[in-house]
């Protein structure tokens, strides 16, 4: 799945019980300012000159300064299809949990308030945090809420951790959103950071044995993992090398790419037009390139 913008034509849980995780006391946010630079993380084993020219050495991400309002949120995993039956105020992130007081989710049929809607649940949560922080008289209704989800993936993990540790999360916003986009939409931008994080978060989640166990094991370690994963190439290098080799097929015109401009404004998706039609042609015997390579190939900044 990809975000709205380009249509691509290519020759292409069961969990036994609910679990609860309590975070250390978190801090609600008040001010948001500043920026920080990111440096490249991954140098592929081999890369074509054209692909190398497409890469960029740095990107900028937002960072923050805050006034702190003490809060204590905790996480509870509710198996898919079951209802939250607790008496505390609750926020459902990413999935949909019956009985939640507030949805901050991009799942179909969500009841996320319009002002917070975005493509990713992680983006929705950050919107909610920032709007709450900017309010002259911020609501205290959800300062000690239970954070709920019904499945494990990178977007769900990032969304939940941002609510449990909002002050810390804003310092990693760009990396967290990139990781969520890589996981949910196969987005591979100019930086490898998001792909690398999603590869490892997904791998560690599977190793945990269940969605419930994945949250129990990873939520307390998210900040440590955000900092340490890029420094541990043995966790992700093989997967990134495979993506680079597939991207080389596009850059070297083995897999050819063309675009058809779409002027039919009647075709709309979400809040925008479909946009260009992207066509990839694979020679006989060459397997289709994976989704992240398609995402990078047709990224607006790569036109």
* DSSP summary: helix tally: 10
Structural class of the helix and strand makeup?
alpha/beta
Q: Which range does the strand content fall in?
A: 15-25%
Reading side by side through the largest sheet, how are the strands ordered?
A: 2-7-10-8-9
Helix coverage percent: 25-40%
Quote the average pLDDT: 80
Largest sheet descriptor: 5 strands, mixed
Terminal CA distance reads: 20 Å
- Give start-end ranges of low-pLDDT stretches: 4-24, 32-39, 52-63, 266-272
Overall geometry comes to globular
**Rg computed from alpha carbons, rounded to a whole number of angstroms:** 20 Å
Order of helices and strands: EEEEHEEEEEHEHHHHHHHEEEEH
Number of strands: 14
Account of the 3D structure:
- About 16% of the residues have low confidence.
- With 303 residues, this protein is of the alpha/beta class.
- Helix 2 runs parallel beside helix 3, helix 6 crosses helix 7 and helix 9 packs across helix 10.
- Strands 2-7-10-8-9 form a five-stranded mixed sheet. Strands 1-14-11 form a three-stranded mixed sheet, covered by helices on one side.
- A hairpin with a 2-residue loop joins strand 12 and strand 13.
- The chain is 33% helix and 17% strand.
Secondary structure: elements and pairs:
Elements: E1 7-10, E2 19-22, E3 26-28, E4 35-38, H1 49-54, E5 59-62, E6 69-71, E7 74-77, E8 90-93, E9 102-104, H2 121-134, E10 146-149, H3 154-164, H4 166-169, H5 173-185, H6 193-208, H7 211-218, H8 222-228, H9 237-251, E11 256-260, E12 268-269, E13 272-273, E14 277-281, H10 291-297
Parallel strand pairs: 1-14, 7-10, 8-9, 8-10
Antiparallel strand pairs: 2-7, 3-6, 4-5, 11-14, 12-13
Helix pairs in contact: 2-3, 2-5, 3-5, 5-6, 6-7, 9-10
